[in-house]
Structure formats: structure tokens, C-alpha cells
Amino acid sequence: MSFLRVFALIVVVAALGAAAWPGTGRFAFAQEHEASSPAPDFAGPGPWFNSPPLTLSGLRGKVVLVEFWTRECINCIHVLPHTRELYDRYAADGLVVVGVHTPEYDEEHDLTALKAAIHQYRIDWPVVADNDSRIWNAYGNQFWPAIYLIDRDGRLVYSHFGEGNYEETERRVRALLGKA
């Protein structure tokens, strides 16, 4: 993250009087991305659940919502029902949701426990186990939960970190799908 982005984040945190970073339930922020920013691909990690391995080139023409989460993060679990609503409402219109499970703690690397969490939380969209943080690092992500929206041309156009902002995220999805 560039110095200016870090500085801007610190200013926003101070202005809001927030005592915590995203992932704690007390702070969240969204960010626009330059329309020319190509989104990083999903190459390398795995295994994949609910889908064969996906690539952004294979998803060209679709709107993609990438959600970074981990099974022991309560804020991630709070966001899942909202992700489910978007998935249920817009999958038929071309929205693809990709869950990227990037562990925070050692025990979260357990693929059997991840599979159980996917079942427990009724996640039926594709999920990739990012145990080596390759996708996390490619996106320059730093927070759980985090949502990134990718347009039909494979460009990263929007991100949101932490809980909340659900209406704005849905508005962005609708606009990308041509339903605004």
C-alpha cells in the first residue's frame, strides 16, 4: 500500500474516531479503483470447493465479486448472509461470487474444517483455499472481510473492507450488471 493510501486511511480512522481496524466490526471503508486496473487472477492456490478452478480469463464477460474471508472471523460470518443475498439475487444475471479463504490462524489451514464451514454457512458459490496467501498478496489485501468487484472486462473497480455498506455494494453490482 502506498504511503498516501496509508496516510489517507489513518486520517479517515482518526476522523471517525474509530478504535479498531476492519475485521473488528467497528470500522469499514470502501475504495474506488482506477478503471484500468486489471484484477489479479486466482492462479496457484487450492483446492477449490463447489467448483473446478476458476480464472479471470475464464470469467471474462461476467461481473465477479471476490470475497476474502476466514472461517473463524466473526465479521466475515456476519457478511456471509449479505453475500448470499447478492449471489441468490444476481447469479442468473451474470454475477459470479468467488470466496477466497485466506487463514489468519494456523488452525484455519485445515481443509476438512474449511469444508465443514462451507457446509455450515450454506456457501454454495466457488471457494478457493488460499492457504499460502498467494491471492491475498496478489490483491494487496490486508483485511478480513474484504470484497472486491471486477467488471466484465476483468478490471478491479471497487472494494469494501469490513462489515456494512451492503446497499452501496449492491448498487455497484447492479450497475456493473446493467441493472441500475
UniProtKB/TrEMBL annotation:
GO molecular function: antioxidant activity; oxidoreductase activity
Domain spans labelled Thioredoxin: 33-178
InterPro entries: AhpC/TSA (IPR000866), Thioredoxin-like_sf (IPR036249), Thioredoxin_domain (IPR013766)
The protein, known as: Thioredoxin
Lineage of the species this protein comes from: Bacteria, Pseudomonadati, Pseudomonadota, Gammaproteobacteria, Lysobacterales
